């Protein structure tokens, strides 16, 4: 039924593409569970894109099935297609081992999910009905007096105010004064997806990278607009900038002799990117994994170490086939070539052990690598806004200067919700604190490792195994995962939550993650039911009780939120009458 419905939508969009945005807005008004302004704005932006995607999709085949499985959860099970066997240029060396420690150490910064909100307004509503709060939405504000005024320094239901963003940048040199270079694993813009435009994103990128350059001085942070910014700031030369403009799947650089840094465009297999629903019969439609293999083989031949970084780990919310491909590639070139994998996106301080997919069972010998998922700068948690991660966090690593293996990981936080009001009342700056060192917390006292020995995949595998018996250690992990939020969701001993979490720490593919959930539910005997459709009343008005008016809607920014809020010289919205 879902595929047939999409077929009708495709036929309509091909015959009358100019009507698609209006139809989508009308569907928002009738069926959406979101605020009308948010849904209508999002549909206005997605309309032309969806029209183009529909025209290319094979809706009766794999494309349509994937689109239904991810766009309408419960309509179809997610297809767990296995990729074809990879023909690597050369077989894996029989004695592939991680190189011996050098005894020399450097520091490397890692921060992620900046999400700067230039429209953040202290004193505005921090407990609103919008997706993100701490803004003046004009006539779309919630009715009545402000329930929770937004602090100057941020809030758990809001993106990063400029004051707190600058505080984070100022804190970095205090904790990592001698960093050799830094990793920024993405997400610059605010979460108002129903309002953003290409101009808005470009301005956010320019402003943010200029701040990084200004506050981090000479710390090197490794598409058309972004490539130009990198070149302007002398992070890459003109030849590299041109390569970045024309190769939007992967970028490679060498930040230090002996280390190759490969950045993957992980949007290419993210399930919320509708373009991934095209050519789903192919394992590697963009050719990114093919190029990754060539780069890794080149490094193996050179006896060179590699770091892989990307915005999101290809572990959850990723096409299953892409996830399995990535695991196979990592297993082939680990542990002798790939020294580390670094990601962000989920706003959580986590790690995942990558195991060899050809191993009969998960064990110390099958553990081949580790994904380090960096915590976020923004305190906003999009996965569960009722349980926000209040703290902002940054991380740095102690790294072997020759082998580039991770020797230790350190996390620093600022308690936004707990302390922001006090800081503001006393005219104080946020207090950033070192929370933990991974080596100190997760080392096994019965199996100590030498100071120059890295935090190997075996180290992390043992840590997970210990958590299964050591409840205190597991609870510490949960606290660090949520950046020490006091509202961390309870995860009782013996619960589905505990079993699922422990399993997923060693699940490096979408398929394995789903298996973890199924096994935990089955073991606990919990019955699951298909989610019922949303029964809320259709939106004829907004949650604030405001009637929909044509002049409230603006193509470039979604809704008219007042001349005093948006700088017209910065955002420059185009004016065009829209039909409903």
Overview of the molecule:
One of its GO terms (cellular component) is extracellular space. This is Sphingomyelin phosphodiesterase. Keywords: Glycoprotein, Hydrolase. The chain has 580 residues and is α/β, with parallel strands linked by helices. It folds into 2 domains: 2-74 and 533-571, no CATH class; 105-114 and 174-490, GpdQ, beta-strand dimerisation domain (Transcription Regulator spoIIAA). Helices cover 35% and strands 14% of the residues. It has 17 helices and 13 strands. The strands form 3 sheets. It has a 6-stranded mixed sheet, with helices on both faces. Strands 2-1-9-10-11 form a 5-stranded mixed sheet. A hairpin with a 2-residue loop joins strand 3 (250-256) and strand 4. The longest helix is centred in the N-terminal third of the chain and has 21 residues, at 36-56. The two termini are 28 Å apart.
Q: What's the story with the biggest beta sheet?
A: 6 strands, mixed
The CATH homologous superfamily name of the largest domain equals GpdQ, beta-strand dimerisation domain
Strand content: 5-15%
Number of helices: 17
Kindly state the number of beta strands. Answer: 13
H/E series: HHHHEHEHHHEEHEHEEEEEHEHHHHHEEH
Distance between the termini: 28 Å
**What is the CA-based Rg, rounded?**
24 Å
Spatial strand sequence of the major β-sheet: 3-4-5-6-8-7
Point out poorly predicted stretches: 382-390, 527-580
Class inferred from helices and paired strands:
alpha/beta
* Average pLDDT score: 82
Query: How many domains, in number, for the residues?
Result: 2
The second-level CATH architecture of the largest domain is: 2-Layer Sandwich
Write down the overall geometry.
globular
Just give the CATH class of the largest domain.
Alpha Beta
Q: Helix share of residues? A: 25-40%
